Amino acid sequence: MTSISKPKSYIAEVLAATFLFPVAYLVVLSLATQWIFPHAFPKALTLNRWISLFTSSTDLFSSLMLSLGTALSVATIATLAGFYTSKHLAYHPQRNIWMRLSYFPFVLSPVIYAAVLYYFFIQLGLSGNISGVIIAQLLIAYPYSVILFSGFWSQRIHNIEQLVQTLGGNRWQTYKRVLLPMAQGLLLVCFFQTFLISWFEYGLTTIIGVGQVQTLTLKVFQYINEANFYNAALSSSLLVLPPIILLYFNKKYLFQKRW
Amino acid sequence: MKIFGKKLFKNNTEAIGILLFLLLAVLPLVLGMIYALLYSLGLAGLMSHGFTFDYWREALSDFELWFSLGYTFYIALTTIALSIFGALLLTIYLKKPFQQGWTGFSLYVPLAFPAIVVAFLVFQLGTQSGFFARILFQLGFISQPSSFPELVNDPLGIGIIAAHTFMAMPFLTLYFMNLYDQENIHDLSQVAQTLGASRIDQTRRVVMPLLLRRAFPTLVLYTIFVMGSYEIPLILGRQSPQMISVLVIRKLRKFSLATIPEAYITALIFMVIVIAALVILFRSKKFSYDLDQ
C-alpha cells in the first residue's frame, strides 16, 4: 500500500468536505425554523416539514410520487427499447450513421428541443399531461440508452447468439437465457442513468408539461420564485437523496460518461 | 411493401428496431427543425403571412442574438477551462487520496445534484445576504450585505460558471482518473523519467497531452451541454445578456407573438452550431461510440 503525504491528504480532505458541504447545507436549511442574514447558523431546527411531507397529503408529496412514477416509466421504457434497438443498429451495415444520429437529440439542449417540438405535442394532445412529459423525456433518454448499449453488441456476443440458435434456442430463449443475463450489469446502469435523466429534468418538462405536470424539479423552481427557501431545500433534498442512495450501492450507477 | 421491406431490412425484428429508432430519435429532430424553419420563413404558425425573409433579417440584425451567442460561448468555454484545470490538478497531484475512503466517495456526490438544485445552492450561498456573506459578516470582514461582492445575477456570470464548474469538475476528475489508469499513463510517465524528464516535463509533455487528447470528444460534448443549459442561467443569470436557451424560451413565451419567429431562428442557429460541432467531432479518429470506455 502506498502512503499519501500529509499535506496532500489534508488538501484532499478539505476539497472532499467542499463537495459534501452542499448536502449538509440543504438538509440543515430544510430543517431550519428561520435562517436569515446575519445569522451564520439557523436559530432552531424542526422536523415538522419532513414529518408533514409523509403524514399529510401535501403538494410536495404528490410531486415526489409524480417524479418517481415518471422516472420509473422513462427508465423502464428507455432501457428495454434501447436494448432491443441498439442490437439491430449495432449489427446493421449502416451502424456508423445510426450511432452518429443518436447523439444529436441527446446532446442538444433539452429545452430548445422541447421548444421546437412543442407544436407537435399540442397537435397530438400531449402537452400539459403526464404522458406527454414521459414521451418527451424518452426522446432524450432513449437515444442515450442506444448509445450506452451500442458497446455491448460485439462480435463475441453475435457469435454466442448464433451458437445458441445453432443449438436449437429460439429468439425468445436467446434473449431470456443468454443476452439479458449477460447484459444484466449494463441494463442496471442504463436503468439508473435514464432514471436520473428523467429525475433531474426541468426545462423539457416545464415546456411540454406547460407547468401543469409538477415534478419535483418544477417544485424547486416554484419555491425559489415564491422565496420559500425552506421548502425549496426540502424538495432539493428529496431530489438529491435517491441518487446518493444509489451511489452508496454502486458508484457506477451514478458515474457514467453522459457526454 | 414487402419487397421494399426486404430491400431495407433483413427481417421484421430488424425493421421494428430501426423504425423505432427513426421514430424516437430521428423524426422528432427533423420535424422540429422543419417546423422552426417554416415558422421563421412565415410559412407556419400564427404569424404565417406567406414566404418572407423579414424575420431572418430582423433576427440576424438583432444585437441581442449575437450578444447572447457570445455570452453562451464565454460561459461554456470558461466553465470547461476551469473544470479541466481543476480536474487535471486533482488527477495529477491528488489521485491517490481521491481514490480511497470518504474523500473518494465525496467526488461522486456532486454527480447526484440536478442542475436546478445546484443553481438553488449557488443562489443560497452566493447572494449578498447568502451563507458566505453571513460568514464574512460574523467574522467582521463586511458590515452590511451590500459590501459583499455580487456573485449571483452578476454581469460576468460568476454564479453560472461556479454552478457549472461544481458539476463538471468532479465528473472530469473521475473521468481523467479512469483514463489515467486505462492508458497506463503512470508507466509512460516513469519511462519519461528514466529518459531524464523532470516532474514538470512529465506532466507537461506526457500526462496532460495524453489525457486531453483522449478526453477531447467528451470535453467537446460537455461544452455543448453547458452551452445548452437552461436552469442554471435562468436562476443565476440576469435579464441581459442571457444564455441562448433562456433567450429562446423568453422570446417564445412573451405575450407578443412577434418574437416567436425570432425565438425559432435563435433555436435553429443554436441547433446548427451543435450539429456542426458534432459533425466535426465525428470526423475525429479518436471518437468512440462506446460511452462505457
Structural class of chain A: mainly alpha
Low-pLDDT residue intervals, each spanning 5 or more residues of chain A: none
Global geometry of chain B: globular
CATH architecture heading of the largest domain in chain A: Orthogonal Bundle
Q: In DSSP terms, counting alpha (H) and pi (I) runs of 4 or more, how many helices of chain B? A: 13
Total separate domains of chain A: 2
What fraction of residues of chain A sit in β-strands? under 5%
- Sequence stretches where pLDDT stays below 50 over 5 or more residues of chain B: none
Name the CATH class of the largest domain in chain A.
Mainly Alpha
Count of alpha/pi helices of chain A: 12
How far is the N terminus from the C terminus of chain A?
34 Å
The CATH homologous superfamily of the largest domain in chain B: MetI-like
Number of domains of chain B: 2
CATH superfamily of the largest domain in chain A: MetI-like
Query: What does the radius of gyration of chain B come to?
Result: 24 Å
Order of helices and strands of chain B: HHHHHHHHHHHHH
CATH architecture level-2 label of the largest domain in chain B: Orthogonal Bundle
Helix residue percentage of chain B = 55-70%
Q: Helix coverage percent of residues of chain A?
A: over 70%
Compressed to H and E, one letter per element, the order of chain A equals HHHHHHHHHHHH
